[in-house]
Each structure stands twice: as structure tokens, then as C-alpha cells.
């Protein structure tokens, strides 16, 4: 695979937003939908859990479907894999939330507190 974007031949409106699909999503679609790999095998190959793979595939199909039906450019971007999602518990209100710590500021979505507990401190761990 050597691509960085997919452009529809006729673009009705050049200002229509591009749809960003990650390299990981493209790989997953390639393995599962093009090569016909089973989820389990593909997940192993991509070092993901089956759940994570399912999530990626659903997202990718939705985005690609939208690009096709809305005539949008698909921009293929490299993004940190979903593994960078991390669970935090708010030290103030107790809300548990996922944050991509490579991108987002760690802040509680409920009470906007920046005081957090990590998995270990809060005594839960399922990542
Ligand atoms: Zn909170």
C-alpha cells in the first residue's frame, strides 16, 4: 500500500471538508475486507485486541462510506494507534474517562478538574 489520499474524479465543491482516515484504519480494512482475514488473525497481526479492531473497522467503514456517498476526498493520515488511549479517574467527581494522552490535555469532561488518578492509584485496570 502506498497512498496518501483518494480523490473523487468529480468534486462538486472544492471546499467540502476532506475525510481523514488513519493508516491503521486503512490497514485494518485491507486485511479484513480486501484480504478476508478473520478478525482474530487480523487483530493479532496488528497487535490489537479484537474489540479495538472492531472499533477501528466500524469507524473506517463509516468514514469511507461517507466519502463515497458525499464525494469527499479521503486523506490518509498517520496517527498514533488507539493504544495511546488511557483511562483516568477524576480525583474530584470520580468520573472515569478515556483520553488520548498524546493529543488531549488531561482534564475531566464532567467537572473540568485536572486532578486525576491513574489506573494504579484508583485501583482499576482493564486496558
Ligand atoms: Zn471530574
Give an overview of the whole structure.
There is one protein chain. The protein has 127 residues and is of the alpha+beta class. It folds into two domains: 5-77, Arc Repressor Mutant, subunit A (Orthogonal Bundle), CATH 1.10.10; 82-122. Helices cover 35% and strands 18% of the residues. It has four helices and six strands; from the N terminus they run ββαααββββα. The chain has helices at 23-34, 39-45, 50-70, 119-122, and strands spanning 5-6, 19-22, 74-77, 85-90, 96-100, 116-117. The strands form two sheets. The chain has a three-stranded mixed β-sheet with strand order 1-3-2. The protein has a three-stranded antiparallel β-sheet with strand order 5-4-6. The mean pLDDT is 82. The structure holds zinc ion. Residues 90, 92-93, 95, 108, 110-111, 113 line the site of zinc ion. Zinc ion (ZN) is lined by residues 90, 92-93, 95, 108, 110-111, 113.
Amino acid at each position: 500500500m502506498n497512498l496518501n489520499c483518494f480523490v473523487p474524479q468529480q468534486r462538486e465543491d472544492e471546499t467540502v471538508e476532506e475525510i481523514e482516515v488513519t493508516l491503521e484504519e486503512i490497514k485494518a480494512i485491507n486485511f479484513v475486507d480486501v484480504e478476508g482475514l478473520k478478525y482474530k488473525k487480523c487483530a493479532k497481526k496488528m497487535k490489537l485486541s479484537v474489540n479495538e479492531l472492531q472499533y477501528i473497522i466500524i469507524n473506517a467503514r463509516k468514514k469511507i462510506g461517507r466519502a463515497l456517498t458525499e464525494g469527499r476526498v479521503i486523506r490518509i493520515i498517520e496517527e498514533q494507534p488507539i493504544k495511546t488511549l488511557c483511562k483516568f479517574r477524576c480525583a474530584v467527581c470520580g468520573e472515569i474517562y478515556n483520553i488520548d494522552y498524546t493529543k488531549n490535555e488531561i482534564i475531566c469532561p464532567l467537572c473540568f478538574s485536572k486532578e486525576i488518578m491513574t489506573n494504579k492509584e484508583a485501583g482499576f485496570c482493564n486496558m
